[in-house]
Amino acid sequence: MSKQIHRCAWSGTDELYIKYHDEEWGKEVHDDKVFFEFLILESAQAGLSWITILRRRENYRKAFANFDAKKVAAFTDDDVSRLLADEGIIRNRLKITTSITNARLFMDIQKEFGSFDKYLYSFIPGGKAINKPPQGGIPVSTPESDAISKDLKKRGFKFFGTTICYAFMQATGMVNDHALNCDFR
Fold first, then answer.
1. CA distance 109 to 120
2. Quick one: pLDDT at residue 3?
3. pTM (2 d.p.)
């Protein structure tokens, strides 16, 4: 007899969402390439549902040079035109050009701090992922996401407000918001 698996309610019944929940969401990341991937994907998600982006993730991987920040930072107007014609991604000019600009700024942070990981965790108390049970529901922002978002905005990043920043933190395991009864907590 197999044990029933308990998951966070948001994962629903969509196979892709369940796989994402079980294998990625809330798992602590310290790899700048993964951070860059989620920077692109979370920015693309602004105003849309996460499942919309998740279903296009492989298309984003191909369109954005396998999430290689250095390659994306070097994209030209021809690349912007190519991306605007790519039906596999969200064809929003501002989101596309922002991804290129954010890639350049991402690399600037890597130079300044040694890694994007060190930069991000400099905003987290004790430099460790936040692993406290959510109280009264999952928040959409926290003082940490406010601070990161504010600093990134000051540096020129776009499409990375505090709500998107908090979703990024959840996705990369900077914070663990799995439900208390979730087997993946």
1. 10
2. 81
3. 0.94
